[in-house]
Amino acid sequence: MSKTEEIRSKLEVGLSPSELEVVDDSESHRGHGGYQEGGESHFNVRIRAAAFEGQSRIKRHRMVHSALGPELIGQIHALALDLDVP
Questions:
Q1: In angstroms, what CA-CA distances link 33 with 45, 71, 74, 75?
Q2: Model's pTM, two decimal places?
């Protein structure tokens, strides 16, 4: 399973989003720190989930990191998050 698929799967299970978009943006970071040949090092993630209702921005980020788990987070160089309620 690719990291993109793993991110999508873990977020669907952990947060039950109404909208989820996971974009591997690694190629636009070629030559920058953390870039890995073959991609899957830099991601943009857009999530709309009822679970975010009433949560601070920091809490929402922590919820995403928790859903992904420390092992997967450790394999990602950059994770840009756009988090909101539906």
A1: 20, 20, 15, 14
A2: 0.89
- Residue ranges of domains in the chain: 3-84
Segment 54-77, tens digit of pLDDT: 999 999 999 999 999 999 999 999
Cα–Cα distance, 47 to 83 (Å, whole number): 5
Tell me how many degrees the CA angle 38-60-57 measures, rounded to the nearest 5.
Answer: 110
**76, 51 in Cβ contact below 8 A?**
no
What SS3 state is found at 71? Answer: helix
Please give the single-letter amino acid code of residue 49: A
Fold of the domain spanning 3-84: GMP Synthetase; Chain A, domain 3 (3.30.300)
Of the candidates 18, 11, 20, the one whose C-alpha atom is nearest the C-alpha of residue 63 is 11
